[in-house]
Amino acid sequence: MIQNLAHFIIQVLTQKNYHKFQYALKYPFEVQLEILKKITKIDNYNDFVNKYKTATYKDFELSILNDRLNYPRKHYVPTSGSTHTVKWIPYTKEFKAELWNASSAWIHDLYLRYPAIKHGTHYWSLSWLPEKMRKSRHNDDLDFFEGIEKYFLKLTMTVGSEVLEVPSLSTSMNLTLLQMINRKVSLISVWSPTFLLELLGKVFNDKEFFLNQIQCPIKKQALVQMKCWTPELTRLFFPQLNLISCWSSSSSRQYSEKLELIFPQVKFEHKGLWATEGVVTIPFQGRFPLAINSHFYEFKCVETQNIFPSWMLVEGMKVVPLITTGSQLIRYQINDLLIVTGFLEKTPCFNFLGRLNTTDLVGEKISTDLVVQLLHQVEENFQCKPISLLAIESSKPHYCLLIEGSNDLILSDEISQFVEKILSQHFHYKLARELGQLSIVEVRIEQNAYLKYIDIRQSMGVVKGNVKIEPLILVRLECENEIF
Hints:
- With about 475 residues, the protein is an alpha/beta fold.
- It contains 18 helices and 20 strands.
- It folds into two domains: about 1-25 and about 65-270, no CATH class; about 360-480, Beta Polymerase, domain 2 (2-Layer Sandwich).
- The radius of gyration is 23 Å and the shape is globular.
């Protein structure tokens, strides 16, 4: 009864912002200038451009560091990027309100399009911390929200915040899956589909734990015989589940398709673009419009490098977003590549094409700049000739370092541990490894590694005469025998 009431109240609380967002879609120019004035006190776009340069995290790093030292109780959320192992993003009251403008419109749209999600609990995976941070940092997904909505959202949650606070990440994942099984989950919202696949896999890795904890005798009996998840088993274990929301674009597609195979009875909704630094697009009425009444948005055209405000975009443009937010990140570039697919009312809609100068198999965000330094370090420390780091998108995603030389298993293991140590200094890579989304770095030492690299690029459709050695490439394959 309390849970049903909470769902009803959340619908009421989100309805106003849903209609505000619908209005904003029709008047992007006016709405965006109003947001710009609210954040910067400037109501003219040209004056804004003349006053502020485009920026990266480095431009804000010192002020954020000082703020964290002077005000340690403020809410900061860690993420990683191409030049920093950890970036700390301030979640101010103003910034959270901007995020709520987007998330509440999306949540209300979910209730309207998928009414069955009202009849169960909701699992929202917003933030997981690496093992090292779990003991020193408070981690509660509800801290992303402010106001009365935080209280009622809590009443609909499948997993309590106490589970997220468990020091061991593995135990926390076990308890999360257990509560999803026992508490009639109707909505699962995760970022990477690989995370949900790994979470489901816990039932096999720790079968004894689940046999002791699962309450339903029929589910216990099925678990004894389980060897893999099937549609019949997901219906049994998650009978209320109506919707799964996850990434499905770019390198995430093949993993979301795996989920669709084992959950054929469940509807799927694809994620919009939502970075730690701010929201860019949300799923809305089957499209991915700009979250037009959240932050102030600009876009750098990939072809011309010119920067345009959102109301000047044209369908077909490939762009990189810049955001100005209530956390005082001004003209901050988010390294994601988007394409304008059209318009909802007068507001542009987008599709996500991939990370800019990075690989992002499961959300680990490895940049070309980082890999260039990494290859140099490997060459210096092991007197070998590294060719390229391959991001292997296969049944078990991982990174593979291709090196020219004589095959040496002992040396391969040493280099693997060396590379793993460097990559693990980066927040999202370390988290992906600890969550089991990525396997350990593989090292391949080949006598003719350069020729092997050429073969790999040709298999990807690159004309042999046009192949150039790149430090970081994404390789999609069904099994590694295809290239090695």
